[in-house]
Structures are given as structure tokens and as C-alpha cells.
Amino acid sequence: MNKKSETSVTVIGLGLMGQALAGAFLTAGHPTTVWNRTAAKADRLVARGARLAPTVADAVKAGELTVVCVTDYDAVRELLGAGDVELGGAMVVNLTSGDSAQARETARWAERRGARYLDGAIMAIPSGIGTSEAVILHSGPQSDFEAYESTLGALGTVSHLGADHGLASLYDVAGLAMMWSVLNAWLQGTAMLRTAGVDAATYAPFARQIAVGVAEWLPGYAEQIDRGSFPAEVAALETEARAMDHLIEESEALGVNAELPRLIKAMAERAIAAGHGGEQYPVLIEEFGRPRGA
Ligand code: NAP
Questions:
Q1: pTM, to two decimals
Q2: On the chain, which terminus has fewer CB atoms closer than 10 Å, C or N?
Q3: pLDDT tier at 216, thresholds 50, 70, 90
Q4: Distance between CA atoms of 51 and 30, rounded to whole angstroms?
């Protein structure tokens, strides 16, 4: 069933990402139907063999699998909720970005209309789509993912995270937290070093080495978090807090921004005040796991 390249697919939404998705399905040989509000964005895909559907209803009918990738979930509901769209029996994979609550609500909404629904998150840029570099996460019923895994595989490295439709969005935003935190930490160091005439390109390889080294600690620290026990095997939080003071003082003395160093210290201080100074850094999960002041 759903042998690769024989499954007909529909792509709704041909922005930068949707065009890349439809292009990858065409490259893999899938009969591909497309629809976009601004029809002209389909021109290049049509020249490559895609069929442009006149309406969303027609597009959903045409594909065994319908992939939706538009700006936000409101647009998804507006398009798929139009009176003439027959979702009964459709298999919808929504690769639009959003939050986990929207994903779960939209799943319930689509399932009430008789559709099978997977929610997804694209951890890639359009030029990476169709290569193994493009990581695309899915959540929802495992059997639906397995039925279309090889078809979706035309888009990149696809995986299934679990039955909870909110998981793909949750992993997506968790990944954003990682990305911006690493970048902000690098920018902080770069701003400091530039005051001494060290340019960003000189610091970047050193910073990269630290980021990779720290990433190696994650599995061991994750075990501590999952066990709920944080023995100071490497360093106690209060030792780290003293180094945080150096970071704040140095930033202030150099005249660079000290907001990020102060935030790092403030969270550690709260954990120390709660009695965790002798434990190891991941004990801060307790600070991250609740709203400030709770
Ligand atoms: P985009 O280039 O701005 O395209 C947005 C698409 O949504 C267009 O096809 C647009 O139609 C359509 N759209 C928006 N509102 C609509 C409405 N009310 N009714 C009908 N169509 C509507 O954005 P994109 O880069 O393709 O991103 C699409 C989704 O992929 C977003 O959720 C984004 O977060 C996610 N994503 C993008 C990237 C990336 O690098 N680009 C990476 C990961 C995830 P028109 O063409 O008619 O305006």
C-alpha cells in the first residue's frame, strides 16, 4: 500500500515552503495536485507536471494524501473548513507551524469531520526540502504515519513522535529555545571579545567547540532530571554561580549588554535560595518547569 511514487498527493499552500514541498513530491515522481490562494505561485510547479486544482475542495479530493502548509492554523481551518470541502476519508498532514494546543484542537476538528490527521513540524528551510538534511516531525496516530511514511519521506528525514497531536509543535518550539539560546550565548561572547579586537570569525570556531562539548553533557544531565536526583559530580550550582558573577561583572565593565548574564544568574540564585546550591546544574529544571515566582 502507498508504494513510493505511486501515491497521489495534494499540497495546499504554495508559499516558499509549500513550493519546496510540492517540488520534492514531483521529484520523487508522485502525481501532485496543488492549490494556492494566489494561483500564479503554482506556475513553475505546473510546468514541472503538477496539476493546479481550481478549488480547495477539488484539491482535497484529488490526493490520497493532502499536505497543508500555510501561514498559520487560522488559515488551515479557513481553507479546510469551507462548505464545499469534503474531509470525510481524507488523510491530512498539516505542516503549518503553530503551538501544541492549536495542533490538538485542529486534530479534533479535522477528525470530527471524518479526516485522518497528522500534525507536523518542519525543522528545515525550503532549500533543504527533499534532502536528508530536512528533519520533519509528525505526531498523531502511528498507523497513519506508517501508512504514508514512505510518501512523506520524499520531503526529508521524517519521524513520528507519538500519538499526541501536540508533540510535533512542542518539539518544534523546544528546538527554537535551543537554537536561540545557543545563538544568544555566542553573540554575548562575541560582543565581549570584539571589545578586545577579536572578530566574530576568530571566536566562532572556539564557541562551536564549547557548544559541541556542552551538548555531550546532555544525556547524563537528562538522566539526573529523569531520576529527580542531582548529585554534584562535576560542579555544585553555587560554584557555577560565582562564575556567573564574573560573566556579569566582565560584561558590565566592558560596556556590553549584561541582560542575558543577569538572567542566567537570577535563575541560579532562586534555585540556591530554595536550597539547591550543593546540587548540579540541571537542578535548575525546577526553575524552568514553573512560571517565575510560582
Ligand atoms: P509564506 O511564503 O509566507 O507562504 C504563506 C502561504 O500561506 C502562502 O501560500 C499564502 O497564500 C498562504 N496563506 C496565508 N494565509 C492564507 C489564507 N487566509 N488563505 C489561504 N492561503 C493563505 O510562508 P512559508 O515560508 O511558506 O511558511 C509556511 C509555513 O511553513 C509557516 O507556518 C511557517 O512557519 C512554516 N515553516 C517555514 C519555514 C521556512 O523556512 N520558510 C521553515 C519551517 C516552517 P498566498 O500565496 O496567496 O499569499
A1: 0.91
A2: C
A3: very high
A4: 11
